[in-house]
Write a structure and sequence with these properties.
binds 3,6-anhydro-alpha-L-galactopyranose; 1 helix; mainly beta; globular
Amino acid sequence: MPTKAFPYTVTPETFDRPLSAAMQRQADKRPYSRPQENPLFTNFKYTPLEGFDYRDGDGTVSRRDASKVIRENGKYYVWYTRRETSAAPVGMGRAKEATGVIPSADWDLAEVWYATSEDGFVWEEQGVAIERPPQPTVGWRSVCTPDILKWEGRFYLYYQAFLEPSGLRGDYCPVCVSSADSPDGPWTRSDGVVLPNGAEGEWDQFAIHDPYPLVHDGQIYIYYKSVFNRPGHMWLGQGLAISRDPLGPFEKHPLNPVMNSGHETALFPYKEGVAALVIRDGPEHYTVQYAKDWVNFEIESIVELMPTAAGLYVPDAFTDSGDGQGVRWGLSHFVNAGTPTTQHSMLTRFDCDLHREPGDPAFK
Ligand code: AAL
């Protein structure tokens, strides 16, 4: 055991002594132990958006789960879950009381809408992009939680498609895709599902949520969330599915799940690899992680006040540059604004510092 107490002034030599496990981690210079020098550490600044009406927050209008933001035709575009119902959700625990017009959860009886903006702060809602198809087509109960891909000049929206209210077996849903020549649509829906649930007994047999497409190595990489070990013990993980065709079939990565945490994980190319905001839930939530090979993620930093369900503005999401530049802002949502009987969500803007500048340590 050391004879002297740990010194007040810390120098490299300070660590040349027997150390506790915690101080050994500092001596090892784990990335997350040095946030001041870490380009994948950030704070988040939030700004309310202009242009969205929430009917005084009575719970009948909700906007949540924004897609990535893209820039086309000289403006920003975003897609999101929009619910407009005659009443606020009854709650997942009372899902049996949900009807054709009464939602169970905030994302029940929803559609995918889109909005555009000149500056990312003031938005103009343009209307519906993906409507609910007629019963019994998959998605008839709700279509929500979209994300966008641009591939060979066409646009693809991936989204969750519900057959039952959330709270019953609704969240056991797959992902469907629609495509268009323009971000303004019209959107043509592909038959069936594009990201199917895993086979019985596989980790993603029930839910495929939060599809998140990026382009890497000439292929489409879709990260997605699943919830496994239901119902005894709930554990969220992120999987990866890869294809050269946006309409599939997608091949699930043999190492899935590739992340052990994250509810609505947001990713962006960074240098040659991919970085991830691992948001909400799981043993490694509220971390920024990095995978040089796009598969094996390591914790880079531990952060606070992460944006819920972040949709990032990722200028190089689809350029496959092999030299990702990072991100500065995006849209996220605040959940459960209002009282329990007026439950809804509101989109908000966040700014962060996860981009590369000349002189940053990332520039090596
Ligand atoms: C979200 C997402 C998915 C879930 C629900 C709606 O934040 O993780 O979309 O199904 O909650």
